[in-house]
Structure formats: C-alpha cells, structure tokens
Design brief:
2 domains, six-stranded parallel sheet, 19% strand, Rossmann fold, alpha/beta, binds NADP nicotinamide-adenine-dinucleotide phosphate, globular, seven-stranded mixed sheet, 308 residues
Length: 308
C-alpha cells in the first residue's frame, strides 16, 4: 500500500519503466493538476485490499502537456485503472481509443480502463451524482425542479445530462459564461420531453447568475446543485446572492473541501437542507471500481475509508 499523501510524477513512471515497479505494485492512479488533495486513494485502497487485489492506488501529478506520455507509460507499466480529475477530464476524453456511450454523451472522461493497447474512457460522475442525491435526500430526479450552478463546466454538464435523462420536472442551467449554458440547454432539450408536463422548451432555461430572473426561478426549484468550484476557498464569492435561498431548498454542493461551504451554511441558516459532494465522490468511485474490476464494490468499505 502506498503511504497516504504520496504524490508521484511522470519521472517516477519513467524510472519504473527502467527499473521495474516498486513492491507496492501500483496499478491504479488518480491523475490531476493539482493532485495532492485528492481523497480517492482513501476509498480505493481499502476496496482493493478487501477484494484481495494485490495492487496499490496512487496519486499521480501530470500536467496537461504530460498527459499523452503519461498514458503511454501507464500502458507500458500495465496499470489497470485511472481516475481523472481537474483539469484533465476533457483532454483525456480525446486521448481514448474507445469510449462508453455515457462518456460520449457527456464529452468528458473521469474513469479510464487500460486493457493492453486499449484505453477505454468512461464517466461515472453523472450516475454517481444521481446515486448520491437519492441516498442523501431520498429523492428521484424525475420528480424535481432543479437548478444547476456551473452548468457549462464538465461536472455541471454531466449533472444536466443526468437530470434531463431522468426527465426532471424543470431544469434551470446557470453559468457565468452564458453561451456554455445555452449550448448545454440545446443539447439536453430533446431528453426532457414527457407527456404529463408542458413541453421541454417551457421547462428548460439557461441564464447567467446575475440575471434578474434568477430570484423568481429560485422560488420554483426544489434542488440546487453547485457544480462550480466556488466554495473551495474561504475568499470565494457567492455563486448568486445567498439571501435568495429558501427553507424548501435542498442544496447539493459538489465541493467537499471544506466539508461545509458558504453555500451550504447559508442554505441551512435559511432553514433548508444541504450536503457536500463527498457522497458523489464515493458513488462515482464505487462505479469506477466496478468498471475496472468487474467486481461489485462494497460502498460501506469505501465510505469507511473516506471517513477514516
Ligand atoms: P470545470 O469544468 O473547470 O467547470 C468549472 C465551472 O465553474 C464552470 O461552469 C465555470 O464557469 C464555473 N466557475 C469557475 N469559477 C467561477 C467563478 N469565479 N464564478 C462563477 N463561476 C465560476 O470544473 P468541473 O470538473 O466541472 O468541476 C467543478 C467543481 O465540481 C469542482 O469544485 C470539482 O471539485 C467538483 N466536482 C466534484 C465531484 C465530486 O465527486 N464531488 C466530481 C466532479 C467535480 P465558466 O464556464 O463561466 O468558466
């Protein structure tokens, strides 16, 4: 098992290619820039250990310019599985030799299976979010009016596609760069049609967080999902005026460090319910483990790993 907190680099991969893998037998990795903060090893290592898989899961720092060579080395070293985090999910999508239908639909890859010459890209963020919401709030996306902050980013797009695929009642896509939210709205519109409600066009809207219509939209949504990176730093501004939050709101913040963001605290102060993104991390990780190994993940083992 690798020591928690270790971060490896491209140079380590090159060294291992020359002198062989270390005794810890690294076969799984999470890649990103930065990567030291990633909590993925804490849940994956206990799951690998309890499945009797003799392999370690490492944090691997790769810059965008190192991605191609990094994957060539990971293939040469016969790694099995890779998780991808900020800012590489879109670039990794283009490096894949094959992609699952859900990865193709979302256009970003957060999970890679290395199978000899094949690099198979997958996305577990969207179904991971759905599982997390069901567990946290005991809700089904189909029944909800949903507002997504950061709907034009990778995680926001994944959330929008999942919500529209479940034909949620209403979908408000909010993004600082309006064009990105509008383009996601065009893309998900055909998924939203259902016979018991008015047309998809009337139930779907895109706007900037500064749009004066946002306050009225907030009156009419049940669930607010934050898919921006706002909230990670104490100095971050509000994603919209948090005084607009109401007691009926369920707030799911994909950010999980810090565990209680300003958005979450504001929602709770206004009488609403709020949860951080740790459960999404857990469920996307469980789905990634299943994709790599073909084994069923024990979510409780992974949850304990994160809690410890
Ligand atoms: P991304 O593709 O870079 O998207 C970032 C989004 O945040 C974009 O919509 C961007 O708007 C918006 N944004 C960034 N800075 C902003 C600011 N100052 N004001 C307003 N909007 C701002 O990143 P991502 O991969 O989607 O990740 C987004 C967040 O979700 C990160 O915090 C990430 O850690 C988290 N996440 C969590 C999980 C989990 O398992 N819990 C999984 C995936 C992601 P523009 O389009 O206008 O730039």
């Amino acid at each position: 098992m690798s020591k928690s907190g270790d971060v490896y680099t491209l140079n380590d991969l090159k060294r291992w290619q020359e002198s062989g893998l270390p005794r810890t037998h690294p076969k799984f990795a999470v890649i990103g820039d930065p990567i030291a903060h990633s909590r993925s090893p804490e849940m994956h290592q206990p799951m690998l250990d309890s499945s009797g898989i003799d392999a370690s899961y490492i944090r691997l720092y790769l810059t965008g310019a190192e991605l191609k060579e990094g994957f060539e080395l990971l293939q040469a070293l016969e790694f099995t599985g890779v998780n991808v985090t900020i800012p590489h999910k879109e670039d990794v999508f283009h490096l894949m030799s094959e992609r699952t239908p859900i990865a193709n639909r979302i256009g970003v890859v957060n999970t890679v299976l290395i199978d000899g010459d094949r690099l198979i890209g997958h996305n577990t963020d969207a179904p991971g979010l759905q599982a997390a919401l069901r567990e946290t709030f005991a809700v089904d996306l189909h029944d909800l009016r949903i507002l997504i902050l950061g709907a034009g980013g990778g995680a926001g797009r994944a959330a929008a596609i999942q919500c529209s695929s479940e034909q949620c009642e209403r979908l408000v896509l909010v993004n600082r760069t309006l064009e990105k939210a509008q383009s996601v709205a065009e893309e998900v519109k055909p998924l939203m049609d259902r016979t018991d409600l008015e047309g998809a066009g009337a139930r779907l809207t895109a706007m900037k967080p500064t749009d004066p219509r946002l306050e009225t939209e907030l009156d009419q949504v049940d669930l607010i999902i934050n898919a921006t990176s706002l909230g990670m730093k104490a100095s971050d501004s509000e994603a919209f005026p948090y005084r607009f939050l109401q007691p009926h709101h369920l707030v799911y913040d994909m950010v999980y460090a810090p565990p209680a963001t300003r958005l979450m605290k504001s929602a709770i102060n206004q009488g609403g319910r709020a949860e951080n993104g740790l459960s999404m991390l857990l469920w996307q990780g469980a789905l990634a483990f299943e994709f790599w190994t073909g084994l069923q993940a024990d979510v409780e083992i992974m949850r304990r790993g994160l809690a410890e």
